[in-house]
Each structure stands twice: as structure tokens, then as C-alpha cells.
Design goal:
The complex is a heterodimer of chains A (about 260) and B (about 475). Chain A has about 260 residues and is an alpha/beta fold. Chain A is about 25% helix and about 25% strand. The N and C termini of chain A lie far apart (about 60 Å). The radius of gyration of chain B is 23 Å and the shape is globular. Classes of the chains: A alpha/beta (about 260), B alpha+beta (about 475).
């Protein structure tokens, strides 16, 4: 029985079901008063850590979130799912959209130094910026092996066997520990937080700190120039029969 | 179709006087909700005249999409003054033809009223507008460890579930909509707005006057338009376990069910599949379940609690000669165990591509289940068709799926006959012609048989008082001849 320690990341994002509206200044989307929840891929990450703990592969799960005060709610959800304690790297409200993957990766690298986990599990990407970079950047900074887009993770003898979801299909790799993994949707079915666990989670510790406390400069390297709605879909044409359909498709160069 | 032709078609000498949706009315409706929310396009009309039932599409003359209660109220005033039928439309997932515009008029599409108004986690209640589906509500509240558990299978709207008094696989634990609606905002036929339990009330119990809330629950759009509902919430269970067991006979399965209930095992779900259904599911989902009467269980509670429940259930199954009892707690294993039950409908349809599937829906006292399932098999045998059955056996409610070519009038007639006989037998056994799907278009005669003339007259009195011009979903629930 191994006794690994896991660091898991989670991000507070606009709930996937919310209809997104572009801000009047076209530099972002409206977040005020909009429902937020844990990034779905991060739910998979936490669930995987909790399962590893249930299998007694893991002995402690530390969950980290970088963001404004409300990120604590996301950490509490992770604690309710089974993480042991939390770390909230707090930034002033309104500046969280400037936290880019490189900054996050640097924060996590510092936390890895501090906490010395054997595995770091992150969601493969956040549904707001869809970057899919943090895991890879972190692995680079730490010079640790990475298993990204994981849909199966198995532990044996100080190594992790990972199945990755890639464009061509599935790739099986083996990584030595310590390693960084990013969770994909099919990794597991995340559990729901239950009321008894939510109540217990209120007693678990959340340590607060700032990027400055960790000596990390989170100045953004990328500048958002413009955010626009996708173009409105134009109405289609109804055609009376297949022959007309074929000729129109040819006309427009589709076939 | 002209009104006279309508009347003749329904065998009436005179019908209610409805008017067509003319330019003037369209203009008034457009003023009320905005031009982008009124359409007469063929595809929109067909969509809104179609549900999941056996009944063919009956398109309205126009589709009107309000965004607020005030708009619904204005639309109702216009339609009431002009005698235009109004058919409220939620998600179109009903099973009894509730959305068909039998007398023309408009479909009142409520899907744009999408707000979740409030969730009170300490009080276990939530208030949602007409367009919110149960999946949307559950997504919204799950982070707080809460759920709205009524599960009719379909992705129905909560207010649509109120209108049809929906139920589902876990009624045995959580009840049906009748037990779970605390209050509703309803727009009456003349446009007046009421709150059935009083505006803002979230009381879990009340003795305040007539039970208006449960008058409108199950009224299938014939007494008012439900624009908002306050419903009960429950905690998400700490632990869940699933189990299945096959049995040598239906009687032994039902006896097990009775004993489970008698022992007070607080099952969340208890479902029955007959051999025909198991075969269909084995083919469709690539399973190799024993082709025999089978019970599917779901237990909820604390981790030790569900283990205890599963063990006791296993004892009861074995006592009644059940075998292959298998149980699981991990999410994926539970999903696998229940796969057959979840995919039932599609499994049956997949076995007969191109044919239309019809689901019967009757309920009897649990102890009479073996008799009625036997009768169902007899009827099917007589027709020479398979009779795959799935049943919410804890409530004595089951569905038999019958397949037919919708264009073959003889087949369709045979299915109607089958369904009618089955429903009558259920009534004779102390049950009802519909456990959860409602009356809609097709079960009106059965309802008359079930309630008797005085019962029907009482319903008709209520209907005529609330909707004197009979514009609300005409032709549904109560047959017109009781109203004119």
C-alpha cells in the first residue's frame, strides 16, 4: 500500500449551463451576478484523487484554487467531495481573469516545493479560456513527467500507467513519480457533494496566501484585444427535392 | 379545418365556438410579446403540435413565445376575448397527446421563461419559472448537496411535470408531483394571475382553504397556464447501492416486493422487467442477463445503511427463490447494473426499426400485479406480439411497450384495443387507467369509466367555471360533450 500525497487544482468558472454575454467593453464576458461553479474537468481531477485515497493509494489530498474570495466556495466543494485540506491563493476581486496559465503553473511549482506531493492532478483545461496549458507548463517548470488528457490512471510500484485520449485514439504511457496529470472527462464520474459531507467540509482547513507570499509574479503576458459573440447563424434555404439540393451544393462548391 | 368539420368529425351536433387566428389576432399577439416571439412557420407549428405519444401531429395555427407572466396574461386575455384555443407547451415530452391543437388556435411555448427564481437550501425548496427543466434545476442545486428527485425519464420541464402530475422510478421513495409541489403561479383563462398557495408561500404544509395547488397539478393545461412552481427539494444521498436479482416467476418477484415494503426497507427505486424486456435489453446493450422476471433495486442512505438494506433485500430475494443477486456501490458499476433498465425504451424501439412504440400505463394495488401482468401477456399472446414490460413495481404501476406501423390502421386499432382492455382490467382490480402519463386525448372514455358520471360532472363544473370559453387545451382530459 503506497501512501502518496496528491495536490489537486480546481478553478472557479462560470457555470457551463449559463448563457454567456459579452461585456459592453468587449474585453471579456459578464461575470457579475452570474452563476459560477467548479470547472467540470477539475471535478474529474478531484474525483480521481478521492478514489485513489479510497483505494488507499493516496494518503492525503490537498486542493488548491487561485482566485478571488469566492474561490473558497470551490475549495469547499472539493473538500466535500473528499479532499483533506485546501489552499486558497487569493487575488483581488476583478483581477482573476488576468491569471494566465503560466502564472498558475508558477504558483503550483512553488506549492509543490512547499507541499512536496507525489502527484499533481489538474483538470485538462478550464471551460472559460480553454487553454489546456497549465499542466504542461507545470511539468516543464518542475521537470516532471506529464500524463495529459488522462482517461485511465493506475498506480503500481511508484509508477503511474496512464491512458491518454488523443486525436487518433488512445495512448498508453507509463510515468515515473513524481508526475503531473491532467484529467479528461471520461476519467471518472464525479460524485455529488452530499449534505453530511458539505457539513464536515466546513471544519476542514483552508490556508490562505497571495501570489506575492509565494514570490510569484502573476503579471499577465498575454493581452486580450477583443471578445466578440460568434456570428449570428444565417437562415437556411429549403429545397424542394434532392436534385435541387445536389445542384445547390455543387453551385456553392461544397461537393 | 372549419369548425363545422371539426364538430362533425367528433360526432357532435354543435361544438364550442372558436375563432381562427386571423390577422387581427396575430397583430394583437405580436403587440403583446413582440414580433420575434410569434411565428406561423410550418416547422415551428409542427414541432409544437407533436409530443412523444402515439397521436399524430396536430399543429396549431401559430406559436407564441412569452417571456414573462405579464405577457402570458396579455396573451390569455386576447385569446379569451377572441375565443382562440390556447395549448400550453413545455418540452413536448408527454405521452398522451397533450400538445395537439385539436381545435386550432395557438401553442403557448413557455421555454423562454428560464429563471430559477430562488433556492432555499435550509428549507429544501426551489422556485422555478415555466421553462426550467428538471435537469437544469438539478444542475443548479447539486453543488449544495440538493436534488429534485422526481424522475419521469424524459427531460421534462418542472412546470410541465406539475401540469401532468408526473411521477417516475423513485416515486416509491419521494412520491409524485402531487406530494412535491408547494405553490404555483397560474394564469387563468381570462388572464388573471393567482398563486395557488398565496404569493411567496413556501410552507411545507397548510390547511388554508381549498387545495388549489393540487387542483392544478395534473390538470394538463385545461384549467390554467402554470408559469412558476415552488417544489420540494431533498438531500443528495450520501451513499447509493444498486442491486439486481432474477426470479423463476413474476409472482415470486412481486412477493419479494411486498416483503421489501413490509420490512420497511426504504428503497429509492424498485423496478421490474419481464423476460421479453430483458431479451430486448440484452440485445441492445450487449448484456447477458438471465432472461427471466427481474427486479432492479436502488438503496440510498449512509454507507453502512445501504449495505444493510442490500443484505436484507438479498435475503428476501433468496427466500422467494430469486437468484443471481448482484449488488454494487461504485458509480460505474451501478450504472452498468441498471443499464438494462435505463435503456428500455430505446432497446425496444431498436428491436423494431421503423415501427412506432406505444407505452401502456396502468396502476393496480401491488398485490394484484401478478394477475394483471399475466393478463397483459395473454392479450399480447392473442395479438401475436411480444410484450416487453417495465414496472415501477413498488407503486404497482407498469408499462408494456407495443410496436406498430403507424400507417397500418388495423395494427393501430389493435393496440388501442389492447390498451383499453388492460386499463379496464386495472380499474376492475382497484387500480387506475393511468399511473403517470395522464389522460390527454386517448384515455377520456377510460376516465369516464373510472370516475363515473357524477365524478365527471364535478370535473366539468370546475372546468366550466374556470374556463367558460373552453379555450384552455380544448379536447383534452374532459371530452367536449361534457362541456357543451
Amino acid at each position: 500500500m503506497a501512501s502518496l500525497r496528491v495536490l489537486v487544482g480546481c478553478k472557479r468558472v462560470i457555470d457551463y449551463a449559463v448563457k454567456i454575454r459579452v461585456r459592453p467593453d468587449a474585453l471579456g464576458v459578464v461575470t457579475d451576478g452570474v452563476k459560477h461553479s467548479m470547472n467540470p474537468f477539475d471535478e474529474n481531477a478531484i474525483e480521481e484523487a478521492v478514489r485513489m485515497k479510497q483505494k488507499k493509494v493516496v494518503k492525503e489530498i490537498v486542493v488548491v484554487s487561485c482566485g478571488p474570495t469566492q474561490s473558497q466556495e470551490t475549495i469547499r466543494t472539493a473538500l466535500a467531495m473528499g479532499a483533506d485540506r485546501g489552499i486558497h491563493v487569493e487575488v483581488p476581486k476583478g483581477t482573476e481573469e488576468n491569471l494566465q496559465p503560466l502564472a498558475i503553473a508558477k504558483i503550483f511549482a512553488k506549492l509543490v516545493e512547499k507541499e512536496k506531493p507525489d502527484v499533481v492532478i489538474l483538470g485538462k483545461q478550464a471551460i472559460d479560456d480553454d487553454s489546456n496549458q497549465t499542466t504542461q507548463l507545470l511539468a516543464g517548470l518542475l521537470e516532471w513527467p506529464q500524463g495529459t488528457m488522462a482517461s485511465v490512471v493506475e498506480h503500481s510500484d511508484g509508477k503511474l500507467k496512464i491512458t491518454r485520449e488523443i486525436d487518433g485514439g488512445l495512448e498508453d504511457i507509463s510515468v515515473n513519480l513524481p508526475a503531473v496529470i491532467s484529467a479528461d472527462l471520461r476519467l471518472n464520474e464525479p460524485r455529488y457533494a452530499t449534505l453530511p459531507n458539505i457539513m464536515k467540509a466546513k471544519k476542514k482547513k483552508i490556508e490562505k496566501m497571495s501570489p506575492e507570499d509565494l514570490g510569484v509574479d502573476v503579471t499577465p503576458r498575454l493581452k486580450v484585444l477583443k471578445v466578440v459573440d460568434p456570428p449570428v447563424r444565417a437562415a437556411g434555404d429549403k429545397v424542394p427535392d434532392v436534385a435541387t439540393l445536389m445542384s445547390k451544393l455543387k453551385e456553392r462548391g461544397h461537393i | 379545418m372549419s369548425l363545422l368539420r371539426h364538430a362533425l368529425a367528433r360526432g357532435l351536433s354543435s361544438g364550442p365556438t372558436f375563432n381562427p387566428v386571423c390577422e387581427g389576432v396575430l397583430g394583437a399577439l405580436t403587440s403583446a410579446v413582440g414580433a420575434e416571439n410569434v411565428t406561423t412557420s410550418e416547422s415551428a407549428r409542427n414541432l409544437h403540435g407533436t409530443d412523444e405519444s402515439f397521436h399524430p401531429t396536430r399543429a396549431p395555427e401559430a406559436v407564441v413565445t412569452p417571456h414573462t407572466t405579464e405577457q402570458v396574461s396579455a396573451v390569455m386575455r386576447i385569446c379569451n376575448e377572441n375565443r382562440i384555443p390556447v395549448v400550453p407547451f413545455g418540452t413536448g415530452t408527454g405521452f398522451e397527446g397533450g400538445v395537439g391543437a385539436m381545435y386550432g388556435g395557438i401553442s403557448l411555448a413557455l421555454h423562454k421563461m428560464t429563471d430559477i427564481v430562488e433556492v432555499n437550501s435550509s428549507d429544501f425548496d426551489a422556485t422555478v419559472r415555466a421553462g426550467v427543466t428538471r435537469h437544469q434545476l438539478n444542475d443548479w442545486i447539486k453543488e449544495e448537496g440538493l436534488q429534485f428527485p422526481i424522475d419521469p425519464g424524459a427531460g421534462a420541464s418542472v412546470c410541465g411535470m406539475c401540469a401532468t402530475s408526473a411521477s417516475g422510478t423513485n416515486a416509491v421513495r419521494y412520491g409524485t408531483m402531487r406530494e412535491n409541489v408547494l405553490n404555483m403561479e397560474v394564469v387563468l383563462a381570462d388572464g388573471r394571475v393567482i398563486h395557488t398557495a398565496g404569493k411567496g408561500s413556501r410552507a411545507k404544509k397548510t390547511s388554508c382553504g381549498y387545495n388549489l395547488t393540487n387542483l392544478f397539478v395534473g390538470s394538463e393545461g385545461t384549467l390554467g397556464v402554470i408559469t412558476q412552481a415552488t417544489v420540494r427539494l431533498y438531500g443528495v444521498p450520501e451513499a447509493t447501492a444498486a442491486a439486481i436479482s432474477s426470479f423463476p416467476t413474476i409472482a415470486s418477484a412481486v412477493e419479494t416486493v411486498v416483503q421489501v415494503l413490509q420490512c420497511g426497507i426504504p428503497v429509492a427505486r424498485m423496478e421490474f422487467l419481464n423476460p421479453d424486456m430483458i431479451s430486448a435489453c440484452n440485445s441492445y446493450s450487449n448484456l447477458d442477463l438471465k432472461v427471466a422476471p427481474t427486479l432492479f433495486f436502488e438503496f440510498i442512505g449512509s454507507p453502512s445503511g445501504v449495505e444493510e438494506q442490500a443484505q436484507l433485500a438479498e435475503e428476501l430475494c433468496t427466500y422467494n427463490e430469486g437468484d443471481n443477486f448482484t449488488w454494487a456501490t461504485a458509480q460505474e458499476d451501478r450504472t452498468r447494473l441498471w443499464k438494462a433498465r435505463h435503456n428500455c425504451w430505446y432497446a425496444v424501439k431498436a428491436g423494431y426499426p421503423g415501427l412506432h412504440a406505444y407505452s401502456t400505463d396502468v396502476v393496480v394495488p401491488v398485490s394484484r400485479l401478478p394477475e394483471i401482468v399475466e393478463y397483459c401477456h395473454e392479450l399480447a399472446g392473442g395479438m401475436g406480439v411480444p410484450a416487453p414490460i417495465v414496472g415501477h413495481v413498488g407503486d404497482g404501476n407498469f408499462h408494456c411497450f407495443l410496436l406498430s406501423d403507424q400507417n397500418d390502421t388495423e395494427e393501430v386499432a389493435r393496440i388501442k384495443d389492447f390498451s383499453g382492455r388492460l386499463a379496464e382490467r386495472a380499474q376492475d382490480l382497484g387500480g387506475s387507467c393511468t399511473g403517470e402519463h395522464g389522460i390527454g386525448l386517448g384515455k377520456q372514455a377510460l376516465m369516464e369509466r373510472e370516475l363515473g358520471p357524477h365524478g365527471i360532472d364535478t370535473m366539468a363544473t370546475i372546468k366550466r367555471s374556470l374556463d367558460p370559453n373552453l379555450i384552455l387545451n380544448p379536447g383534452k382530459v374532459l371530452n367536449m360533450r361534457h362541456l357543451c
